[in-house]
Automatic annotation (TrEMBL):
PANTHER family: WD REPEAT DOMAIN 5B (PTHR22847:SF637), WD40 REPEAT PROTEIN (PTHR22847)
Organism, scientific name: Apiospora phragmitis
Keywords: Coiled coil, Repeat, WD repeat
Keyword Repeat: yes
Its biological purpose: Involved in mitochondrial fission. Acts as an adapter protein required to form mitochondrial fission complexes. Formation of these complexes is required to promote constriction and fission of the mitochondrial compartment at a late step in mitochondrial division.
Protein name per its UniProtKB record: Mitochondrial division protein 1
Basic and acidic residues bias: start-end ranges: 16-27, 335-350
WD repeats mapped onto the chain: 125-148, 245-284, 285-323
Family: Belongs to the WD repeat MDV1/CAF4 family.
PROSITE patterns found in the cross-reference section: WD_REPEATS_2 (PS50082), WD_REPEATS_REGION (PS50294)
InterPro entries named in the record: Quinoprotein_ADH-like_sf, WD40/YVTN_repeat-like_dom_sf, WD40_PAC1, WD40_rpt
Amino acid sequence: MNKGNRPDQFFETDDAAAKRERREAKAGNKNGSPIALKSKILGAIADPNNPSSVLVAESSGSVRRVNVDRSLGTSDMRSCGGPGNQTIFAGSWDKDIWSWNTASKTRPFGLCQSRAVYETGGKDFLISGGADKKIMIWDVETGSRLHVIQDQVVSMMAVQDLAIDPESSTADELVLASASSDPHIHCRGRAGDTGTTRPTILEHETTVYKLAFDIHNDDVDLWTASGDGSAKCLSRTRGFTTDDTINHGDHVRAVAFTEQWLITAGRDEDVKVWDRATGKLYCALEGHYDEVTDLVILTNSPGAGTRLVSVSIDGTVRVWSLDKSGLDKFIQEQQDKANGVEKPTVEKAPEGLMTAEEEEELAALMDED
């Protein structure tokens, strides 16, 4: 008796069948020059040691260094940066945090979902947050837990992201923002120089997945990505209230930005690029066929210009040019495809036969003889 192992061999609703068929049809596209890995990709960061690489965390329990130019391929750390750019920290569903030396790939000690690393007083510290609704501070050198933080005023749910405020933090004291499965953003640490830091920020309707301070902006405002389908700019000078809202359309899992563009991505599979000057959608980068989980900006790759790396539950790493010419080229290709315009193909001469030009040259030489 044969056992079925395909989804279409089991009962599924019409909506589920339509979704599966759409994804199967979309899976073969080559937009973004996909690099396929073996499992779902849950997160990514830029490789601090290689401007052409990213470190990606997989649901299989591995972290891989992926060279997006493919010259070095991928390497398995089984591990996401750390002090001196030599240590990788990875939080896992097994409730542990592990650290790896990026050079030797050895595991010094085992210590989670979100993490941040900072240095103060000449010592390195790790901050982690997890589904247990707690934020913990660790001594990196010893692996010992120093503090446990829980909000006493507003009930905080599972921690989704952590971000250190680069504007308000000092060498001796830091300001930490945390996002969780509830709509609140929690700020901890000293107030900023403007005195406008709020302990709790409520600007979204549901889960806040991502926090990112905008270093391209003079005020270093805070950008958020939420399950309510929006990304918001929270103005520092206005007490981190909403200054701008981008309506992506579905759960927003990631947000990234350059001086010219704001990029959002999430459950609807598309990576959307917004013009920061106008706030309008410039283009949607279509390629992934499942939820997009993270975005990384690469800026220092030799001769490559500014690029965006997107990762997804579909197990692919995709790379997109953020130069205006590169985006315009993608838009034109998508329009041509929608209109049924095919690219002209250049016919190659059969191997061993001369081209028409070569035959003419040969005929001319024979006439001279």
